[in-house]
Design brief:
Layout: E1 4-8, H1 16-26, E2 29-32, E3 41-45, E4 48-52, E5 65-68, E6 73-74, H2 76-88, E7 97-101, E8 105-106, H3 109-121, H4 134-143, H5 155-176, H6 184-198, E9 202-203, H7 205-214, E10 219-222, H8 248-251, E11 262-268, E12 271-273, H9 286-294, E13 307-309, E14 311-312, H10 313-323, E15 327-331, E16 341-349, E17 355-356, H11 363-368, E18 370-377, H12 394-407, E19 410-415, E20 423-425
Parallel strand pairs: 1-10, 1-11, 2-5, 2-10, 5-7, 6-8, 7-9, 11-15, 14-16, 15-19
Antiparallel strand pairs: 3-4, 12-13, 16-17, 16-18, 19-20
Helix pairs in contact: 3-4, 3-5
This protein binds inosinic acid.
Length: about 425
């Protein structure tokens, strides 16, 4: 029996929601370990669409423990809204538990204000953030001026921390960004009120994970965003503010690294990106439009159109390396149906004229890299009814075989449509 981490191998939005939902059914515990409500999973249950930004998608299943780990930055009002939305829709089973780490850092109103003001101030040089205050919250965590969930339960100390934080934040908001300063008492009242409502969910989640692990329960670590948004290995500075690599499942949830036995890398059959930053295989033609339209490539959090392009195996291989990916889940293969030719980027021609298989650390170089492609014949048949590899058209199989060879990781799942059942399952990562 294994514990499994699921991570995105590209720029996020690889279709993790559907795969996590399939694996969550088999898991006992589902834990998030990084990011915040910049993520977005669209789940369709009984024909009704629910978008979760913070709560692990396992919440919809019976008899699970869903954990928001210490590595996540939590906006308490968003968390409560999601809980209420789930309860109202009768989507939160009574025997499923939700727990939030008492050590999780809070997203405060000034984090949102600074995130948005900075982006507006930097027009022309913006990151294209989701504007949810994620970066500024992680900044304060690293600066040791952050406020954690546990702090809300000691009013005096919370008020002192808030006062100190606001001295600095209001100076920045007023002095640099020309904005109205934020009111300390208003924020304190709001957050103390939220704290009361959140109390039943606050826990020492590291302890819970350890207990469940020792009891032989299956744990699914649910990554958010993708490898190219990792703060160390992504296209810095056009990244998110946490490590999205699988190793962070350990630090961000408070469990030993050896508790993570398998890593499933989600890889879309093409590439998308929201926000700014280099994207070597981006397409600005009708093929890119096909991917955007057929794949319904709009951000689940901000509704922005996603940029689209061919699959870039150079990036995926880097993700496999830094996260120790053992299994690949290929998603949205059906979106490529109908294209005459399909390409995979297998290397880059650098501005100096060299050929490389590595992702340059300098994004100015990456931006000037020319993708080198292998080309494959497409297929016209509807692949959504396929449930086994040999039910796929020969050209789709050839594409997947070559992908597997180039990635040097085995494919364990192929998604051929948005429905849960539109899936080819080759292996169960919790067992095989
Ligand atoms: P932030 O995480 O809001 O600071 O945004 C930093 C970058 O990460 C921006 O390019 C965002 O578009 C991107 N980003 C953040 N979360 C996601 C996600 O869940 N999917 C895809 N891109 C994301």
């Amino acid at each position: 029996m294994a514990n499994v981490a699921v991570i995105g191998t590209q720029w996020g939005d690889e279709g993790k929601g559907k795969v996590v939902d399939i694996y969550a059914e088999q898991a006992d515990v589902i834990a998030r370990f990084q990011g915040g409500n910049n993520a977005g999973h669209t789940l369709v249950v009984g024909g009704r669409k629910t978008i979760l930004h913070l709560i692990p998608s396992g919440i919809l299943h019976e008899n699970k423990i869903c954990i928001i780990g210490n590595g996540v930055v939590v906006d308490p009002s968003v968390l409560l809204e999601e809980i209420e939305q789930l309860r109202k829709g009768d989507l939160f089973p009574q025997n499923t538990k939700l727990m939030v780490s008492e050590r999780a850092h809070l997203i405060m109103p000034y984090h949102r204000s600074i995130d948005q003001a900075r982006e507006a101030h930097n027009s022309g040089k913006k990151i294209g953030t989701t504007g949810r205050g994620i970066g500024p919250a992680y900044e304060d965590k690293a600066a040791r001026t952050g406020i954690r969930l546990i702090d809300l339960y000691d009013e005096q100390s919370f008020r002192e921390k808030l006062h100190r934080a606001l001295e600095e934040k209001n100076f920045l908001l007023k002095g640099l960004f020309g904005q109205k300063p934020l009111d300390e008492n208003e924020i304190a009242a709001e957050y103390l009120g939220l704290a009361e409502k959140l109390k039943p969910y606050v826990a020492d989640t590291s302890f819970v994970l350890d207990r469940e692990n020792k009891n032989g329960k299956k744990i699914l670590f649910e990554g958010a965003q993708g490898s190219q948004l990792d703060i160390d290995y992504g296209t810095y500075p056009f990244v998110t503010s946490s490590n999205t690599a699988a190793g962070n499942a350990s630090c961000g949830s408070g469990i030993g690294a050896n508790a993570i036995n398998k890593v499933v890398g989600i890889c879309k059959a093409y590439t998308t990106r929201v926000g700014e930053g280099p994207f070597p295989t981006e397409l600005h033609d009708e093929i890119g439009e096909h991917m955007q339209k057929v794949g319904q490539e709009f951000g689940a959090t901000t509704g922005r159109k996603r940029r689209c392009g061919w699959l870039d195996i150079v990036l995926v291989r880097q993700a496999i390396r830094i996260s120790g990916v053992t299994d690949l889940a290929i998603t949205k293969l059906d979106v490529l149906t109908g294209l005459d030719k399909i390409k995979i980027c297998v290397g880059y021609k650098t501005p100096a004229g060299d050929y490389t298989h590595a992702v340059p650390a300098d994004i100015r170089i990456l931006s000037q890299c020319q993708p080198v492609y292998e080309e494959f014949p497409g297929w016209k048949e509807d692949i959504s009814p396929a449930r086994k590899m040999d039910e796929l058209p020969p050209n789709a199989r050839k594409y997947l075989n070559r992908l597997e060879e180039l990635a040097q990781a085995r494919i364990s799942l192929v998604s051929v449509g948005s429905g849960r059942e539109e899936t080819i399952s080759l292996r169960d990562p919790f067992r095989d």
